[in-house]
Specification:
heterodimer, A: 12 helices, about 0% strand, B: alpha+beta, Alpha-Beta Plaits, 3-stranded antiparallel beta sheet, two-stranded antiparallel ribbon, 5 strands, about 20% helix
Chain lengths: ~325, ~200
């Protein structure tokens, strides 16, 4: 790989990282509005408020950057970066086209898993360092949620890795067959539910729970640092949706010619992101105990069952 | 109350799917949003937007100012002498309105002034776009109050078997002194001027 190619790949990954979350965010604005009988943003940018998130970004840029006096200064200021950067790393490893990923490493599945877990660590840092009781409770809830929902995600991904016989996302996506839609269905459901929980999105937004915790771990943040947390949430949706579309929905496999594989992947990923938004609008927040119950009594056993099924399938040579 | 079993919160999976279906159905229907600054709202004619003044009907009787619960109506007037209309007749006096102002920063839109006015000089108008940057600019004088008369909607139609409106009854009554002579003389003009009902779009 030449230096030029490396730079091009990095720029492409960064561009996707900056554009795709905004697309998802704008889609959330509009879809949520229409699901609630509203119009959503209509003015920014002229046509149906397409520039609303750009305007929001400009607004956040102008705000004062406040660090509370009692806060743990370095941890507090570092937390948004810890939340944001891992999703950039994860996004760079997700393939969008046959054999094309910004960074193609042999164990990309493990890398993505590790990166998304570190992302949730940012919330924990923010909650711990803010010197605010709401932030602290939010951070601890986030930690509890992370512990519970990391396991189903790992088990669901392990089932896919077993079925495809690889740890590389590119290889796994290449070995995907339509049969997987049925065979890996329980794992798919487990992953989708656990991914929404990992991102702390409604109905699993107990760590943020704005009715009781102000804004959870993000309570003390202002301006650009707060915007980074929001961006990391939407970048997380993009990463999880693309991951789901590549591993469970077959990524670029589709009726279109191979040259348009990347379009297929992105379309499938966008559809998954719409489901994540839809779920947010339709369902109320789970209580903390319900949240833990769902993870340990339903998702983990279901994921183990899926692993058993996959193992049997691989041994019997389906 | 033991007749019905409380099934709230026991929806389980059907309830979850129902939630998805409801939001999806709403998303496919037209929205309810009225884009206000671009599209004027359709307000019912009896909306309490602002109080308009028909200056010609005001006799400076001060009833409205005195009944106002928060004293936000200011009236100044003076008396003028009208020379006798017939030689040897008596001179008459009448009130001339100098100032009529309503402080809308105090007004609580109770409508008592409108109810109490015996000469139909005050009217409700649905017009509501008179916000100001400074609260002191909400004290509006009679010119501005008079301008709002254009936005007063016509009174609603009477019920089918309702009694004749007072003005019409007065106009149709035979003039005083003509007795029951058929065709009875010139009709008396109504005592008060009716509001000019120019139905215009709210600006």
């Amino acid at each position: 790989m030449t230096l030029l190619e490396a730079v091009l790949r990095a720029v492409a990954a960064l561009a996707a990282f900056l554009v795709l979350p905004l697309l998802v965010g704008q889609a959330e604005h509009k879809v949520m509005a229409h699901m609630q009988g509203r119009l959503g943003p209509m003015y920014a940018g002229g046509f149906h408020g397409w520039a609303q998130l750009v305007a929001d970004g400009v607004k956040f840029l102008q705000k004062e950057d406040i660090t509370p006096r009692a806060a743990d200064r370095w941890v507090f200021r570092l937390a948004p970066a810890v939340a944001l950067v891992p999703y950039l790393v994860a996004l760079a490893t997700v393939p969008v086209h046959p054999g094309v990923a910004a960074v193609d490493v042999p164990g990309s599945l493990v890398l993505v898993l590790a990166a998304t877990s570190v992302g949730a660590l940012g919330t924990l840092m923010a909650g711990w360092s803010s010197a605010n009781k709401y932030s602290l409770i939010g951070g601890l809830r986030a930690a509890a949620q992370l512990v519970s929902y990391e396991l189903p995600i790992v088990l669901a991904l392990a089932s896919i890795a077993l079925a495809g016989g690889s740890l590389s996302l590119v290889v796994l996506a290449d070995r995907w067959t339509p049969l997987w839609l049925l065979w890996q269905l329980p794992g798919a459901v487990v992953f989708l539910v656990a991914a929404v929980a990992e991102l702390q999105r409604p109905p699993f937004d107990m760590p943020v729970a704005d009715a009781e915790l102000v804004m959870g771990a993000w309570t003390e943040y202002t301006g650009l640092r707060f915007a980074f947390f929001l961006l990391s949430e939407y970048a997380g949706i993009v990463v999880m949706s693309l991951l789901f579309s590549v591993l469970w929905l077959g990524g670029w496999h589709g009726p279109l010619p191979d040259a348009l594989g990347w379009l297929w992947t992105l379309l499938k990923g966008f559809a998954v992101a719409l489901v994540v938004i839809w779920v947010r609008v339709a369902w109320p927040r789970l209580r903390e105990d319900q949240l833990q119950r769902l993870a340990w009594l339903w998702l983990v056993p279901l994921a183990l069952l899926q692993l058993l099924l996959t193992g049997a399938g691989v041994v019997l040579g389906w | 109350m033991v007749s019905e079993k409380d099934t709230r919160g026991r929806g389980g999976l059907p309830g979850v799917l129902k939630g998805l279906a409801t939001t999806a159905r709403t998303a496919l229907r037209p929205t309810h949003t009225a884009e206000y600054p671009d599209v004027a709202p359709e307000l019912p004619p009896r909306s309490r937007g602002v109080i308009a003044l028909l200056e010609e009907n005001c006799t400076s009787c001060m009833l409205c100012a005195r009944e106002c619960p928060d004293w936000c109506i200011y009236i100044d007037s003076h008396k003028e002498t009208i020379p006798a209309s017939t030689p040897g007749g008596r001179e008459r006096q009448r009130n001339v309105l100098d100032r009529f102002a309503i402080d809308f920063s105090l007004c609580m839109y109770c409508g008592i002034c409108i109810e109490v006015c015996p000469f139909d000089a005050l009217f409700w108008s649905p017009q509501f776009e008179y916000a100001e940057v400074d609260i002191r600019d909400l004290l509006h004088e009679k010119d501005r109050l008079g301008e709002w008369m254009r936005t007063v909607p016509p009174p609603p139609a009477l019920d089918e078997k309702a009694a004749e409106p007072a003005e019409v009854a007065a106009a149709n009554r035979p003039a005083r002194g003509t007795g029951l002579v058929a065709g009875g003389g010139a009709a008396r003009p109504p005592r008060t001027v009716r509001p000019r009902v120019v139905r215009e779009e709210l600006e």
